[in-house]
Structure formats: C-alpha cells, structure tokens
Design goal:
single chain; mainly alpha
C-alpha cells in the first residue's frame, strides 16, 4: 500500500468506516454536552430564572449572547494552540474550564453575575468547535468531509431535542434539591459532565493517523498518504499564509454566511422555548414545562435527519454552494411566518422547516474553507470564520429580545432572523465560495 491509489474502494471505505466508528460517537458526545451547556440558559429563562433574577427580555438576550463576545476574543489563538499542541490535550483543557464555569452558573445571585459568567463561559469554550472541525480535516479526505462534519454536527439538533427534554425534567424534578431552584439544579447537573469527559478525552483521542494504534500499519500509511497528498495540492494551488487566511475577503464573506446560518440557529436555540410558552397567550393553550420541552424537541429531531441526508447528497454530487444556499432560503422564508399562522400546529410546522434549513446548511458549509486552506492557515481561517460568524450568537438573542420588549411581540425579531438568513444565502451564491471539488478551478 504505497500510495493513494493503492487501496481499492472497498478497502478505503473500510478504513474510513473504522475511523468514523472510533471517533464520531465520542466527538458527538462532546459536542452534545458543549452545545447543551451553551444554550441551556434558554430553558432556564422562562422556567424561573428570569423571574428570580428580575430579567427583562432584553437583559435575558444580552446574558445569552454575551457568551459569544468572550468566544470571539480567544477563538483564533485557541485553534492555533490546538494545531500546535494537539487536539487531545487542548480539547481536554477547554472542557475542564468550561465545565467549571457552567457548573458555577447554578449559584448566580443576580443579573450582573450571570452576565459575567456567561462571558467567561465563552472564553472557556473558545476553540472547541473550530478545533474539532480542524481535527476532522486530519482524519477525513475532502470527498467524505461534509458527511463527517454532518455526523459530528447531528449533536446540535440531538442536543437541542434531548436537551430540551432532559433540561425540562431537571427543572421540574430538581426544585428543592440541595436547596436549589429547579433551573439552578439544571445548571449544576449539566455542567459536571464536561469536567468528567475531559479526562476521558485525554486518554481516548488520537491526534493524527500516524499515531493511531487502533489502525493497522497499512491503514495508517494509506490514510496518511491520502491526507498528505490533499494538503500538498491545496498548498500548491493556493499557498495561503496565516496572515492571508485571516484577512482575505473570501474568508470574511464566508464568515458572514456562517453568521446567517448561526443567527437562525441561536435565535431558535435561545428563544424557541419562550416562543412555545407564548402559545399559551396567543392560542389559549396550556403547556407544562415537560410538554414545552417535548414540543421543542420535534424540530430538531427532524432537522437531525435532514442534516445527514442533505450533506450526503452534497458529497455525492460534489456540490457545495447550492447545498448551503437552498436550505438557508427555505429557513429564511419560513421562520417569519411562524407566528402569523392560525394555530400552534401550523406554527410549529413553520418552525420545523426553519430548523431543517439551518441544520441542513451547517455541515456542508464547513466543507467550504478546507478547499483552499491547510495547516496553520486552516487552523486560523476556520477559527476566524467561526468566531466572526458566532457574533450572531450575541446579536440574535439580544436583538430578538430587544425587539420583543420594544414591540411586545416576537414577530419583528423573527422577521430579522429570516432576512439575515436570506442575505447569507445570496452571499454564498454570489461568492461561489466552493466550486465543485473535482473542478480544476478551486480558487
């Protein structure tokens, strides 16, 4: 097995399947816990936290979104550190610090402390998501990368779906345990797993294929040569230094596209439980905390299935641009009309369509940057796209909350969500950021 072409297709598929089975379930578990600790404030808010701490919708949105300012500050240096020191050590370090801060959220005495801890949570988590996106480029060739990212990112809708139910159970059944309110007990229980998994990460993950004792020597050789050949081709065609990767207009445009995707994701993540609670006033329904959690889960379950199917379709067609743009258009058109519909069932159909659009666009988007970035430039460029795009994590909940306070309705905020998503779709089409991966023109 001396080169990239030496392994027949069946052998290649076996090797990549072996890698996927070894890495993907564990990485999904890590991101499940990560995303849950990031958005569980959305369940705490309407279930006691806002009343206990005296939070308006604007302050709640600010506290939800300030996380991403801290995230932005250290995202690029954190990913460069991962590239230098290895994923195993650096991800474990990130998890210990974010777990400690997430657990401390259970004891916030007032709004100011809540805001400070949310900011520190962003600082602690910086580099986790783009670090894993970078880590996947060390293990999966370009032709399989969108599907690999999709499998990893199913943790987002799964975390939102299962997390909605789990968080609701913890809030409902945890009230009074250790003398804590239900929402405080939820923060405590959901923060601890990150600390425990940090120690598992240290011993379980393997930094590079060349170090994988769970692969045979022949498997390590083939995979290493395949990935090295792709990196060499990318560097020969583009040869982007780190500075260029951090300043090139294409990177900045991709950051805006990701801003639009994430804007929809976080608007749903932080405010969907509140929107569903609002059905009681709008439609005269009565929902328990558990029922709200179960209803919140539905769009994400369907979104998880769509995410995997759509990204696999993009891999087969070797097309990226429209596999990002079409879901964004679908989600952007559907979400503003959700609260204009005549009954809660139709409103949830519209919300579900938006969730499908957001979830379907996410994994294919992350196949775009690696088309022209490698090495340190990939580490820095991917982190920059993620950090700038995640400014929407601050903007979406803050703007949505502020517009709710200003107008007395969620409708204006959801119109903004739709407009931003459609603008991102138009941008990725205009940019043509990723030609077909088999095209000779990959610039």
């Amino acid at each position: 097995m001396s080169g990239v072409e030496a392994a027949p297709a069946a052998v290649q598929n076996r090797i990549l399947r072996k890698v996927a089975v070894r890495l993907m379930p564990f990485l999904c578990l890590l991101y499940f816990v990560n995303y849950l600790d990031r958005v569980n404030i959305g369940f705490a808010g309407p279930n006691g936290m806002n009343d206990e701490l005296g939070l308006t919708a604007t302050v709640f949105g600010f506290a939800s979104g300030i996380f991403f300012i801290g995230y932005l500050v250290l995202e690029v240096p954190s990913n460069l550190a991962l590239h230098r020191f290895g994923a195993r050590k650096w991800l474990a370090r990130i998890m210990i610090t974010w777990g400690a801060v997430a657990t401390a959220m259970a004891f916030v005495p007032n709004a100011t402390t809540l805001v400070v801890l949310r900011f520190l949570l962003g600082v602690a988590e910086a580099g986790f998501f783009p670090g894993i996106i970078l880590y996947l480029t060390y293990w999966f060739p370009a032709a399989q990368r969108a599907k690999a990212v999709a499998l990893f990112m199913t943790a987002v809708p799964v975390s939102s779906a299962i997390g909605a139910t789990v968080s609701s159970v913890l809030i409902s059944s945890g009230h009074g345990i250790f003398g804590l309110s239900g929402w405080r007990f939820m923060f405590l229980v959901e923060g601890v797993p990150a600390i425990l998994l940090a120690f598992v990460t240290w011993f379980y993950l393997t930094d590079r294929p060349s170090e994988a004792k769970w692969l045979t020597a022949e498997e390590r050789t083939w995979l290493g040569e395949q990935l090295a050949a792709e990196r060499a081709q990318t560097e020969a065609e583009h040869s982007w230094p780190l500075r260029k990767a951090l300043t090139h207009p294409r990177i900045l445009a991709l950051a805006f596209v990701y801003f639009g995707i994430a804007y929809g994701l976080y608007a749903l993540g932080f405010f969907l439980p509140t929107i569903i609670k609002g059905f009681e006033q709008q439609y005269g329904t009565e929902l328990s905390t558990m029922e709200t959690g179960l209803i919140t889960a539905v769009p994400y379950v369907i979104g998880a299935v769509a995410m995997v199917v759509w990204s696999a379709h993009g891999d087969r067609k070797r097309e990226r641009v429209w596999h990002v743009a079409l879901p964004l258009l679908l989600g952007g058109v559907s979400i503003p009309i959700a609260l204009y519909l005549g009954n809660p069932f139709l409103a949830m159909v519209a919300v579900t369509v938006c969730a499908v659009g957001v979830c379907s666009a996410l994994p294919t988007f992350w196949a775009l940057p690696s088309n022209f970035l490698a090495g340190a430039a990939a580490a820095g460029g991917i982190a920059l796209i993620n950090s700038l795009g995640n400014i929407s994590g601050f903007a979406a909940p803050y703007i949505t909350g502020a517009l709710k306070d200003a107008t007395g309705s969620q409708r204006t905020g959801l119109w903004v969500v739709g407009i931003v998503m459609i603008a991102a779709a138009i941008t990725v089409v205009a940019l043509k950021a990723a030609p077909r991966t088999d095209s000779p023109d990959r610039t």
